[in-house]
Amino acid sequence: MSVYGPLLLIALYYQDLQGKSAVVAGLLLAPQGIGSLLTRNIAGKLTDRIGPRPVAVAGLVLTAAGTLAFALAGPAASEWLLGASLLARGAGLAPVTIAVGAGTYRDVPIPNVQDASMTARIIQQLGGSLGSAVLAALLAAALASHHSAPALAFDTAFRWAIAFTTAALIPAVLLPAAKTPAAGQDTATRGTTAS
Question: Whole-prediction pTM value?
């Protein structure tokens, strides 16, 4: 809900407030994908080393920070500033996705992985759809209240998006921490198996 819902708002912001076409709005979202690409490898390594919890929390904080510029932006906001914000937002999204996935499957017995995978995917789809619907409804309500100032309506909707992302910190801190090595096994040999 907090990760995918704001994507709808960002696209609408570019189209409705800045007057961009759908194609241009889609191209302006590219920095978010680049940010995700830049952090995905390090997020995976960090999740393996320090556990999913701190990686997800850091990713959520970065995602919220990357959304903040949109909550403060008007129709004439700098495309460079918004692009940098999207880069930061994308850099936060990859760690959240990777850490949540790792935390979801870490302690699942192998015979149950298929069921866990399906359940996790359903929850992601429902959350993304619900987030988009809730933020669209909040935007519509804000536009009705501020019909002469649509920038204020978008500010309100983006503030809600930041609030949802901040609220996601609660389940993020419930993710597993790093696994401790088994008795008699030091950190240098953890993860290796004897022949």
Answer: 0.84
The pLDDT, as a whole number, for residue 180 is: 61
Amino acid at the residue 92: G
Return the beta strands (E) in the chain as ranges: none
Please state, as a whole number, how many other Cβ atoms lie within 10 Å of the Cβ of residue 72: 12
CATH number where 12 lies = 1.20.1250.20
Mean pLDDT of the chain, nearest integer: 87
**Contact yes or no for 86/31 (Cβ under 8 A):** yes
**What's the domain range around 135?**
5-172
Q: What is the C-alpha separation between 128 and 6, in angstroms, rounded?
A: 9
Q: Distance (Å, rounded) from C-alpha 47 to C-alpha 63?
A: 17
How many Cα atoms are found within 13 Å in the side-chain-facing hemisphere of 169?
15
Dmax (CA) for the chain in angstroms is 72
Whether 188 is covered by a domain: the verdict is no
CA distance to 31, 73, 157, per residue, from 28 (Å)? 7, 15, 20
